[in-house]
């Protein structure tokens, strides 16, 4: 599908006899944030143990794995690579042993100055084992002469710029760190006497943990034998929460940045209906990403909401395509139209984004072929005109249809009768009084943290523009 790719998810438990098992469950709930690799590091109290694998959470852990990961604290990570190639080598957590002792790290986000830091470290003799930006933090940490683990960590993390929600594990501490802009979510919960940190609250729900609060932007929370200790060691910076978490990434049953994703996403749909109304018979979401916004569109417009496209949730990565060419095949494997809903109807299709337009074009064709008389595409965010440098895998600017074509050109390309996007103001109004706290760079091209000049070199994983 033509989507921005998820980033990563992090999770951690401190002070529970089944820390690794709970971390496994937490990662299971965060699977939508990364499907390429998974890992858990656990502390026995004396040593850290690590298990990493390529693929889904559910496919990579068995009883024997948990026996090896015994201990009262653990951290975990699901990854979709935003920097560094994918594969086991770049899977996280990354575990090292250094002068400060053993430490494991899981990172959600992207460091905009990673290459610069890496070049400096390599010129000073560092040998890197991965191509991930996260490893840079560990090298800086290992080289620190600071006397305490906290001070060494502060010294290393202070040199990083960009987006980072981190979970770190030492033999007797779990540490959560969020960058001063608060790009990526990170939240704190409790399960009995145990502490839990997670990218999203949906993972707290799964293990019956109670949400306490978000880790604050710029906060370093150290949870150790004496309980949690909150530090704010970094210079404050303007908040820049990723609005795309609300548009697409986060699960609708989560709260991120203090707000219900479902509520915000539904409000995007209501505002979209006000800004971009359509004369039509039925509102059809493109599942799953368009469902909340379509609900809002339907509520506001009074048009009935019907599931005119059905998604197959069981498409695995090893799916083999037939040699014979089948019309709309790539899309139809995932989505199939419901003719009884679409036939003879003027349809409003609601989705959360158009990245390159190729998938939207196929869906519009498919809906027409199923009998729709008109197709009106509505998008619950503004045109994406700029790449992300803060942990989301986007194509480069030249590959974003919103950056290179007018809305009328896009409409013609995807073959819709009309096309309407939510405005930036509509997007920000929907998040309410916290609107100033959001990053909207991919819609505005205005970046809160400067990024390297060589965009092409930076976007190592730019999506390929193939059909
Ligand atoms: S550029 Fe877009 S995707 Fe990236 S952090 Fe900002 S809002 Fe999120």
Draw up the topology in text.
Blueprint: E1 8-14, H1 19-29, E2 37-43, E3 48-54, H2 63-68, E4 73-79, E5 94-98, E6 101-111, H3 114-123, H4 134-143, H5 149-157, E7 162-169, E8 174-178, E9 187-191, E10 194-198, H6 201-206, E11 210-214, E12 220-224, E13 227-231, E14 241-242, H7 244-249, E15 255-256, E16 259-260, H8 261-275, E17 282-285, H9 291-301, E18 309-311, H10 329-332, E19 335-337, H11 339-342, E20 346-351, H12 358-369, E21 374-379, H13 401-404, H14 407-414, E22 418-421, H15 424-430, E23 438-439, H16 441-444, H17 455-458
Parallel strand pairs: 14-23, 17-20, 20-21, 21-22
Antiparallel strand pairs: 1-4, 1-10, 2-3, 2-4, 5-6, 6-7, 7-8, 8-12, 9-10, 9-11, 12-13, 15-16, 18-19
The structure holds iron/sulfur cluster.
Could you walk me through the main structural features you see in this protein, from its secondary elements to its overall organization?
The structure is a single chain. By secondary structure, the chain is α+β, with helices and mostly antiparallel strands. It is 28% helix and 25% strand. It contains 17 helices and 23 strands. The chain has helices at residues 19-29, 63-68, 114-123, 134-143, 149-157, 201-206, 244-249, 261-275, 291-301, 329-332, 339-342, 358-369, 401-404, 407-414, 424-430, 441-444, 455-458; strands spanning 8-14, 37-43, 48-54, 73-79, 94-98, 101-111, 162-169, 174-178, 187-191, 194-198, 210-214, 220-224, 227-231, 241-242, 255-256, 259-260, 282-285, 309-311, 335-337, 346-351, 374-379, 418-421, 438-439. The strands form six sheets. It has a seven-stranded antiparallel β-sheet with strand order 3-2-4-1-10-9-11. Strands 5-6-7-8-12-13 form a six-stranded antiparallel β-sheet, covered by helices on one side. The radius of gyration is 23 Å and the shape is elongated.
């Amino acid at each position: 599908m033509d989507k921005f790719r998820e980033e990563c998810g992090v999770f951690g438990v401190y002070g529970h006899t089944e820390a690794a098992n709970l971390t496994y469950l937490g990662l299971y709930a965060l699977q939508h944030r990364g499907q390429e690799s998974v890992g858990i590091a656990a502390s026995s109290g004396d040593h850290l143990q690590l298990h990493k694998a390529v693929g889904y959470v559910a496919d990579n852990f068995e009883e024997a794995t948990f026996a090896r990961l015994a201990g009262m604290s653990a951290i975990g990570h699901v990854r979709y690579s935003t920097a560094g190639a994918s594969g086991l080598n770049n899977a996280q957590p990354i575990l090292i042993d250094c002068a400060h002792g053993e430490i494991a790290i899981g990172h959600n986000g992207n460091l905009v100055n990673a290459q610069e830091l890496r070049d400096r470290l390599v010129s000073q003799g560092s040998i890197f084992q991965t191509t991930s930006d996260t490893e840079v933090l560990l090298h800086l940490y290992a080289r620190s002469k600071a006397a305490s683990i906290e001070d060494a960590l502060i010294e290393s993390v202070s040199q990083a710029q960009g987006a980072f929600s981190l979970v770190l594990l030492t033999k007797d501490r779990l540490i959560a760190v969020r960058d001063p802009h608060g790009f990526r979510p990170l939240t704190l919960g409790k399960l009995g006497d145990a502490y839990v940190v997670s990218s999203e609250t949906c993972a707290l729900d799964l293990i019956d943990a109670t949400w306490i609060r978000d880790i604050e932007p710029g906060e370093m929370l150290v949870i150790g034998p004496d309980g949690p200790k909150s530090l704010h060691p970094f210079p404050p910076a303007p908040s820049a929460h990723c609005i795309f978490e609300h548009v697409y990434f986060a699960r609708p049953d989560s709260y991120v940045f203090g707000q219900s994703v479902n509520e915000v996403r539904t409000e995007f749909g209501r505002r979209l209906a006000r800004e971009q109304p359509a004369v039509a018979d039925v509102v059809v979401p493109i599942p799953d990403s368009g469902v909340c916004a379509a609900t809002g569109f339907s509520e506001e417009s009074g048009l009935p909401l019907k599931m005119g496209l059905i998604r197959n949730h069981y498409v695995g990565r090893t799916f083999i395509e037939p040699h014979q060419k089948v019309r709309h095949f790539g899309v139809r494997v995932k989505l199939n139209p419901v003719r009884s809903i679409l036939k003879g109807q003027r349809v409003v299709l609601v989705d959360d984004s158009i990245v390159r337009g190729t998938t939207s074009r196929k869906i519009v064709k498919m809906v027409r072929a199923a009998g729709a008389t008109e197709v009106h595409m509505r998008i619950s965010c503004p045109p994406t005109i700029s790449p992300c440098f803060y942990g989301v895998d986007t194509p480069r600017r030249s590959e974003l249809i919103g950056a290179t074509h007018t809305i009328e050109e896009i409409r013609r390309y995807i073959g819709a009768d009309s096309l309407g996007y939510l405005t930036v103001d509509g997007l920000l109004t929907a998040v309410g009084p916290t609107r100033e706290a959001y990053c909207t760079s991919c819609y505005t091209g205005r970046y809160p943290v400067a990024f390297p000049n060589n965009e092409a070199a930076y976007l190592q994983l730019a999506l390929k523009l193939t059909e």
